[in-house]
Amino acid sequence: MLKQTRISLALAGLSLFAAGAAQAQVIKIDGSSTVYPITEAVAEEFQKAKKNAVKVTVGISGTGGGFKKFCRGETDFANASRPITAKEMEDCKAAGVQYVEMPVAFDALTVVINPKNSFLKQVTVEEMKKLWEPAAQGQITKWNQVNPAWPDAPVKLFGAGADSGTFEYFTEAMVGKAKSSRGDYTASEDDNVLVQGVSRDVNAIGYFGYAYYAENTGKLKALPIVNPKTGKAVEPSAASVENGTYQPLSRPIFVYVKAASLDKPEVKEFVEFYMKNAATLTKEVKYVPLPAAAYTGNLEHVSKKKFGTVFGGKNEIGVTIDELMKREAKL
How much is the pTM? Predict the structure, then answer.
């Protein structure tokens, strides 16, 4: 279960240590709030299995913030809701940081509205672009400016912060360019802030990873997205992600491990534990697990030291699970 108090602790970079934990080995993880629920669930189970002999700290500074720390060598792992960028690849290379890219799940990036909203039944990519593009700032302030069939009511926008991989993916998928967004919206790296904002305003709309919607179905409504290829409105779900119909907001999410950290037995053990338990725990926190071959493939890449990324330093919209599985990593 996602817990707001736990998220707050992670944001503050705090970790609750049991008595005598000062001597425990520590594994440091930071990055995406979207990947956080999976990695935190794995960390909890791993610490139990190790009887707290190893401590795993999981912070939330957004994908971009996590990669900054990772490429400075400050953490063992980076949680990422989008692939590493060309600039981050350069930063890691300059600092001598090599890494293994491990996809751990698929996410249905979810657009949410207030349950009392009676006029929004579905939304197109074109409508979302009109609402979120930079030119909309200070100009598109009412719903009927996006679609004349919608009411003359104020738009209240909630979304991911600029350091978030979710922000980058959403803007590329909906606006056509990563990080291209109006700035006059409530932004936060803490998805619980966005949940609260949308749940309290009938005219609100926001976006974040599926797990945070699934945890708050009583407070929020998921907005079906019209698939640009088929013209059909599709709701986010495990089935629509698996069959590839939830487009363009279906995406892989990742964990990156630092090559040098793999020399530490506890880190290697944590990676093995993660990959063996990822499918089960991914389902528990409402994401879509990858095929078993993906997790064994990740372990194979670790053992064979296959460093790098399969994305070439850029986001790709609409990658399917099958396509992801066929790629080879490059530095």
Answer: 0.84
